[in-house]
């Protein structure tokens, strides 16, 4: 039996929950590259300055490798490097922010430019409680930036929700692999 390694990139703007998601999925065993934030316009004490990394052994011997990207535009040169060889990506969006203030569109653009066939799931974080699976003020943004991508509310601290997002992404990856095998 062949062991497969699955490279997954977690992207999104500063403060959306990328490091938290990687830490949750690896049960706190990820390597993080956070440093004190020097941007006074951002209300966050620490920020990722390179990439976060964690791996998970899956049933059957496969391995999941998670790479959390830095969210700030000044680190955008790292995004294509992390996307190289990736099988999928989760793009996190801070649902509490104004849609016009997010850099998530730039992350999706980087994927479109450097990995256009990459399966992607969008997780909307910091939604609060709602019966609507996607906050109404984000629906227009999703329609414009990600009309064909699955989106779900996601608390990156919650293991069950993190696994749901990963299951959704892995389902897309498996569908792509079956489609490619048929060609």
UniProtKB/TrEMBL annotation:
CDD domains: Ras_like_GTPase. It holds the Pfam family Roc. InterPro entries: Gliding_Motility_GTPase, P-loop_NTPase, Small_GTP-bd. It comes from the Bacteria. This is GTP-binding protein.
């Amino acid at each position: 039996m062949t062991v497969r390694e699955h490279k997954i990139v977690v992207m999104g703007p500063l403060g959306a929950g990328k490091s938290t998601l990687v830490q949750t999925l690896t049960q706190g065993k990820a390597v993080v590259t956070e440093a004190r934030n020097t941007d006074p316009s951002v209300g966050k004490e620490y920020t990722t300055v390179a990439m976060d990394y964690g791996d998970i052994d899956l049933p059957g011997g496969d391995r999941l490798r998670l790479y959390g990207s830095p969210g700030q535009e000044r680190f955008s040169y790292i995004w294509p490097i992390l996307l190289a060889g990736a099988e999928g990506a989760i793009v996190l969006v801070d649902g509490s922010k104004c849609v016009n203030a997010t850099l998530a569109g730039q992350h999706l653009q980087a994927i479109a430019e450097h990995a256009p066939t990459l399966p992607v799931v969008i997780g909307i974080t910091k939604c609060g409680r709602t019966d609507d699976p996607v906050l109404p003020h984000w629906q227009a943004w999703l329609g414009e930036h990600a009309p064909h991508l699955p989106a779900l509310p996601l608390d990156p601290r919650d293991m069950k929700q993190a696994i749901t997002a990963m299951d959704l992404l892995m389902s897309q990856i498996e569908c792509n692999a079956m489609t490619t095998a048929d060609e």
